[in-house]
TrEMBL record:
Ranges annotated as spanning the membrane: 39-62, 68-90, 111-135, 165-186
Subcellular location: Cell inner membrane
Signal peptide: none
Name assigned to this protein: TRAP transporter small permease protein
Length: 190
């Protein structure tokens, strides 16, 4: 009791603090891999900003716009946002309504963690199935030949097909990550 009061006096909380720069321990090795991969997509956002700045300079100072800048920045930003959802799962930093969650005791909170993670795993798996159907249309012709869906613009990159494949991959990995969280929360792993 005196130790808890001493911790409160010195600003320490009763619950163990986790490293804000790392995934939660329950995410396991997959969570660490996801977290480390985040830098690639953060650099993609920086590259998209640099491309936009270059496009503004080329368009308004030299009257020589490019045909590829707009679609490239949309693609880079899109895959970063898709990966961001997966990244948030591994760090338990997604948005949640905590009105009830924070008011319940830790044992019940653990039960909520298991249930929420399981429901999220099922949801992610169902969305992955829908993405699989979408990828089938975006990556294959009716005769079964592999050909990615294209944008239809003057540049005509295969970004729409690539984005749909990336969405499928992210949703599958997200379902696996939520399943790992479900198991580790149920086991009480810290």
């Amino acid at each position: 009791m005196a130790e808890a009061e001493d911790n409160i006096e010195h600003g320490a909380s009763e619950t163990p603090q986790r490293n804000e720069g790392a995934p939660i321990p329950q995410a396991g090795p997959l969570g660490r891999i996801i977290s480390q991969g985040g830098i690639v997509f953060a650099l993609g956002i920086v590259a998209a900003a640099a491309i936009l700045i270059q496009e503004v300079v080329l368009r308004y100072f030299f009257n020589a716009p490019t045909t590829w800048a707009h679609e490239t920045t949309i693609f880079l930003s899109g895959i970063a946002f898709l990966y961001g959802g997966l990244y948030c799962v591994s760090r338990d930093s997604h948005i949640r309504v905590v009105l009830i969650y924070d008011a319940i005791p830790p044992r019940a909170r653990r039960g909520f963690d298991v249930l929420i993670s399981f429901i999220c795993a099922l949801s992610s798996a169902m969305f992955a199935y829908a993405a699989w159907i979408m990828v089938g249309r975006a990556a294959f012709t009716p005769s079964g030949e592999f050909r990615l869906e294209r944008s239809g613009s003057a540049w005509n990159p295969a970004f729409p097909g690539m984005m749909k494949i990336f969405l499928l991959i992210v949703l599958v990995v997200m379902a696996v990550q939520f399943l790992i969280l479900t198991i580790n929360y149920a086991r009480g792993k810290r």
